[in-house]
Please model this.
Amino acid sequence: MHPKTKQILQVFEEINKIPRRSKHEAQISLWLQEWGRSRGFEVKADSLNNVLIKIPPTPGYENSPTLILQGHMDMVCEKCKESGHDFSRDPIRCVYDGEWLRGDGTSIGADNGIALAIGLVLADAGKKGEIGHPPLELLFTVDEETGLTGAKGLEAGFFEGKILLNLDSEDEGVFVIGCAGGQNSLITLPVQWERLDFEKENLFGLFRLSVEGLEGGHSGVEINKQRANAIQLLSQALIGLRHRLGPENLRLVLINGGSVHNAIPSTAEAFIALRREKFEKTEKTLSCLRKTFQTEYEKTDPGLNLNFEAINREIIFEVAGYKITGEEVSSIPVFSARTEGKLIGLLLGLPHGVYRMSDTIQGLVETSNNLATVRTAENEIVIISSQRSSNNPRLAEITGKVEAVSKLAGAWIGHESGYPAWEPDLKSELLLKCRQVYSETFGKEPEIKVIHAGLECGIIGSVHDDMEMISLGPTIKDPHCPSERIFIPSIEKVWIFLENLLKSYRCS
Model:
């Protein structure tokens, strides 16, 4: 293992001891500030907890342009069902598995903690005289994963450089020069509740129906892989049961699914009140659905499972202000039949997946939608839909479809401000320099790509004039998933490339 790879991984493990869920980056922000000040670097932070660490040039680079190395502090917190990990306080355990580094049943936060680690080790190496480099600014932003609000909040003058290396890409040897813009929509469906008296109608029992074991994944990077959406599969199962049993024999109590707006939902669950005499018929119906789902998604989601179980006395959940404890309850609120019909129709009607491929770049998803989350609140069902496109009119088009379906179901819908696309510049001097350095270093040309995921470059470039930008990084597989992992040898290649690129800016 390259000695700098070892150092980067050591710093990465230190970073992973600090909780850094999106919107909760105060601890990691303070840690980064202290790291910089303890080494005598100029450090500043803004009210959002964005951090800038200024690294002076090494001898011979005093007249070189300032380069910005940029990444984000926050991570998507995903874990396996059996994991007891608490992302609000537990360190993330790093597991070395051959040439890969992964978590212990959790996402590992290589997206984008590895950028922080690379930047810090590079700054240390320059201070120790191990490498030469121009003036550097380490720009670390917050809340990239849930709306890029850290980048949106950067004020004029927070940084000085005009050349930005974003370290948030996930394929070594690939330079990203453009990305999609995005728009999140919040859909709220009012709930009409009815009470189901278990003592009076003693033939009902409480059951949990769940879709589990899906691959999930990044809703930009992996949306073209046609993976299953747990929310929509659960909705298909519910409507199948309603048709088979009759809606009077099955009442919906609670439904939840998905985790964050930019992850394809890998789990979803519904708690239902079911007439006990229909239990056998329910199991047979679900067995057929399970086989159908598993056959349909055999290649993309081999771990898919449709589970159905009676609620035991230890399971407690809350709905409409009532705590429900298994079969100890005598009366519970259930969705009205009208609400059930609207909700299931809405979840099945909302678009999910690839909407249109690019006409100009082969293999690029132009426009897509992710039916991301559903939650039961006291008086409403809250759904998040996340639209992406590199074509602004098409982004408006897919958002309009989401809005139309929502309104037909009687739901209210609001839209976040969104984020802009990053339009590629194939004539960029930075791109030409990076291509030259990479080919001279490794004896082959890098791949140049535009991606469907969102990057902070789109926001930074739209707000701060005359920026030259490129995105790169080591190879990361299954970001935003418990199976997230980073290819260790790719870290060495990124380090060597960056070292040579920085050398190329020597002006004396």
